[in-house]
Amino acid sequence: MSAASYKNSPQKESPKVTAPWGIYVHFPYCRRRCPYCDFNVHVQPIPHTRYAAAVVAEMGLRADEAGEGPASTLYFGGGTPALWRPEALARVIEAVDARFGLRAEAEITVECNPEDVTEALLISLRATSVNRLSLGLQSFSDETLRFLGRTHSAADNLRAVATARRAGFDNLSVDLIYGVAGQHIEAAIEEARAAARLAPHVSSYQLTIPEGTPFGRRAAGGASLILDDDLQATLFEGVRAALTAEGVIPYEISNAARPGFEAVHNGLYWADRGYLGLGAGAHGFDPRAASRWSNLTRPDAYLEAVEAGRRPEAFREHLDPVARREERLMLGLRRDAGVSVEPEDEIAYGAAARRLEREALLLRAPGLWRVTPRGRLLLDSVIAALLAP
Ligand code: SF4
Q: Looking at domain 3-270, which of 3.40.50.300, 3.20.20.70, 3.40.190.10, 2.30.30.30 is its CATH number?
């Protein structure tokens, strides 16, 4: 299917203006598990065709939870969705287009690890209308990559970006992890600069150590795996400054882009828009019903449920108006542009907001709140203080 085929989407003919919404497809398989990863990932043989058929069938089971009009985004995350055979992935895209429609300018992203990037794979992805790649480079230091248990090298990273460019992917995002114990501040900042020169979108994350992972067990045993808080704060600001200096402008706590390359799909999350989650362990949110859910995480349980015609649901909750408001503020404050403030937000949280303003953690303008640079460093505490009863 080419991008031109979206012109045939029945929904596109509709003159009605509909709210943007997106589709997230979770591909829960990886070649191996990285020692810091607590995502829903399984290392087992991949049932390419069967999993695609299940995701397509789930679209039918969840049709009433999709947004109105064609989708603005389609995001394949994981796991490692680049391991999915391109024809299986193409089948899912075609089914999305046939059932829901995709806007002509829809952002269609696939996450890839550098070691999986080949010219043949990317040509196949281009042929399926994928127009954005998110590359998990993580670092340009072989030492850091080894420490993180990654199976690619810094040279693989450069090769993957060059291959993506040759295959015509200009809309590239790269992921970086920083704050690894022993990492030199200037070296980590230089990595951010290098990333900004390679791609118009950079997601940079401090290494976190989730419990239950191999890193979590090492940390519980006393190992020091991350830099201390002061160095992390210095790095956070240094990385943002380096990206800005290269023209890749931070627009969210972990994301920066050249103008026009901001992530549309993740932008839906931060703007409190709806998204349909499909696949094992995927999450979904329907703002009209104030309802969110998550799917069964184990691929076999997911497949069996869908094949039996059941929604593969593990969890669902209905958000009351207070929870909805809190979530909107929490997500919106992640953005550098801040969050729109409704009169009822002022009533509920105005006193706390004024207090945070006096502490130079929050900026208040008519109808808008946003965190200061210092507030950004303490974002979790600022949000907790704002929303505290
Ligand atoms: S490749 Fe990504 S999703 Fe897979 S185990 Fe590593 S960090 Fe987790």
A: 3.20.20.70
CA neighbours within 13 Å on the CB side: how many for 350?
11
Residues in contact with ligand 1 by the CB-under-6-Å rule are 30, 33-34, 37, 39, 41, 78-80, 113, 136
What average pLDDT does the segment 279-299 reach? 97
Residue 380, pLDDT > 50, answer yes
Residue nearest to atom 5 of ligand 1 (CA): 33
- 144-157 b/e (C-beta count within 10 Å ≥ 16 → b): bbebbebebbbebb
Please tell me the predicted confidence (pLDDT) of residue 288.
93
Q: Where are the domains of the chain?
A: 3-270, 322-387
Give me the chain's average pLDDT, please.
Answer: 94
Protein residue with least CA distance to atom 8, ligand 1: 37
Judge contact between 287 and 273, C-beta under 8 A.
Answer: yes
Alpha helices in 1-113 (DSSP H): 48-61, 86-99
Which atom of ligand 1 lies at the shortest distance from residue 31's CA?
4
Contact 266, 255 (CB under 8 A): yes
**How far, in Å, is the centroid of ligand 1 from the Cα of 33?**
6
| Fold (CATH) for 322-387 | Arc Repressor Mutant, subunit A (1.10.10)
β pairing state of 71-78 and 102-112: parallel
What pLDDT, in 10s, does the model give residues 208-254? 999 999 999 999 999 999 999 999 999 999 999 999 999 999 999 99
Q: How far, CA to CA in Å, does 43 sit from each of 32, 40, 79, 104, 298? A: 6, 10, 9, 36, 11
- The mean per-residue pLDDT over the stretch 68-84 comes to 97
Assigned token pair, 341: 């403030």
Residue 254 to residue 234: CA distance in whole angstroms = 15
**pLDDT score at 16:** 65
Q: What is the pLDDT of residues 2-17, one digit of tens each?
A: 333 333 344 444 456 7
pLDDT attached to residue 11? 44
Q: Mapping DSSP to helix (H, G, I), strand (E, B) and coil, where does residue 324 land?
A: helix
pTM: 0.94
- Ligand 1: which atom is nearest the Cα of residue 79? 3
For residue 271, the model assigns a pLDDT of: 93
